Amino acid sequence: MIPIDSVRGRKMASYIPRIYETSRVMGSILQAEGEELERLRQALDGTLDQFFARRVTWGLDLWEEELALSPSPEQPFGERRDRIVSRLRGTGTATSRVIKEVSEAYDNGAIDVIENHAEYAVTIRFVDTLGVPPNIDDLLIAVRAVLPAHLDLLYEFNYFLWGDLDAENWTWSQLDALNLTWDQLEVYG
Q1: Are residues 117 and 149 in the same domain?
Q2: Cα separation of 165 and 13, whole Å?
Q3: What gap in Å lies between CA 4 and CA 1, rounded to an integer?
Q4: Same domain for 36 and 81?
Q5: Known InterPro entries for this protein (predicted)?
Q6: How far apart (Å, rounded) are the C-alpha atoms in residues 137 and 102?
Q7: In this structure, are 63 and 46 located in the same domain?
Q8: Which of its termini does the chain have fewer beta carbons within 10 Å around, N or C?
Q9: Is residue 105 domain-shared with residue 139, that is, in the same domain?
Q10: Is there a single domain that holds both residue 151 and residue 167?
Q11: Are 2 and 28 in contact (CB under 8 A)?
Q12: Which residues make beta-bridge pairs with 156?
């Protein structure tokens, strides 16, 4: 029998009578069928992924259409998935939990929601993220969609400050020795 490379072809070969072990014809058939079954399995797995918002790829347009989101093919898949998950989470009454879930769908980090009832304001504080998240515009739209119109929406961002360097007693020579770019230094701190 010719060597069978496909996993499914080898599995099928284990089920046939031993008389076919030396048959080149049967080996070729099992190899071809095994390859086809593996391609079919990959296609089925790919199709199944389209039913889950966090794994969708070629079905993003369909999700966006179903959720009445404007299509944005120029955005990376991850940001488009974040918009979809946020829309799915952002239904119902606008509680601080809903606002937190919608915000975390975009940032993939910890977020605090602070309600200031006296000033009719809600503040979203990014706990884990340094700087402004890359898809902040989509986040603004999503949170504004679930937040009642009479409430003001504020954001608090974290930044790496020179004072943070002073607190660690860093010198310019020590920083220079690290050979970090400004973006890397921001994450390093």
Answers
A1: yes
A2: 65
A3: 8
A4: no
A5: Phage_Mu_Gp48
A6: 13
A7: no
A8: C
A9: yes
A10: no
A11: yes
A12: 125
> With a threshold of 0.70, does the pTM exceed it?
no
* Residue 111 to residue 82: CA distance in whole angstroms: 15
pLDDT digits (tens, 9 = 90+) for 26-77: 999 999 999 999 999 999 999 999 999 889 999 998 988 888 888 888 888 8
149 with 131: CB under 8 angstroms? no
* Phi, psi of 67, deg, nearest 5: -95, 10
Q: What is the CATH number of the domain that holds 151?
A: 3.30.70
- Residue 111: name the closest of 156, 164, 161, 160 by CA: 156
Residue 69's alpha-carbon distances to 83, 109, 138, 185, in angstroms, are 8, 23, 11, 36
Q: Decide if 87 contacts 69 (C-beta within 8 A).
A: yes
Statement to judge: residues 150 and 105 lie in one domain: yes
- Residues 108, 59, single domain; the answer is no
Max CA distance (Å), the chain: 85
Kind of pairing between the strands at 152-158 and 121-130: parallel
Assign 76 to helix, strand or coil: coil
Of all residues in the chain, the percent with pLDDT exceeding 90 is 20
Domains held by the chain: number? 4
Q: Which residues pair with 115 in a beta bridge?
A: 122
Q: In terms of domains, do 83 and 98 share one?
A: no
Q: What is the CA radius of gyration of the chain?
A: 27
Domain of residue 77, residue span: 52-91
